Amino acid sequence: MARADQGPSPIVRALVIGVWTVVAAGWVGALAMRSGPPELANQLVLVVLGGFFVLQVSSLLLTAARVPRRRAAVLALLGGIVLWTMGSLTVTVADVGTVRPFPAPGELLFVASYLGLAAYLLLDVPSRVHRSSVAWLDAVVVCGGVACVIALVLVRPVSAALGQTGVPLLLALLYPLLDLALIAVLLAQVVVGEREAGWSSVFPGVGLLLLLVADSSLLVQLRGGSLASVPMLEALWGTGFALLGTGAVVRRRSSDAPPVHRPAWILVGAALSAVLALALRPTESVGLYVSIPAVLTLAGSGARMWVALGQARRTADAVQLSLTDELTGLANRRSVLAALTARLTQREPLALLLLDLDGFKEINDSLGHSAGDTVLGVVARRLADAVGPGVAVSRLGGDEFALLVPDQDHLELLELARDVRETLLAPLEVENMQLAIRSSVGIAVAGADNRTSGDLLRQADVALYEAKDSPVGAVVYDVARDGFSRQRLRLGEELRQGISEGQLQLWYQ
Question: For residue range 278-294, what is the model confidence (pLDDT) as tens digits?
Answer without folding.
Answer: 787 766 555 666 777 78
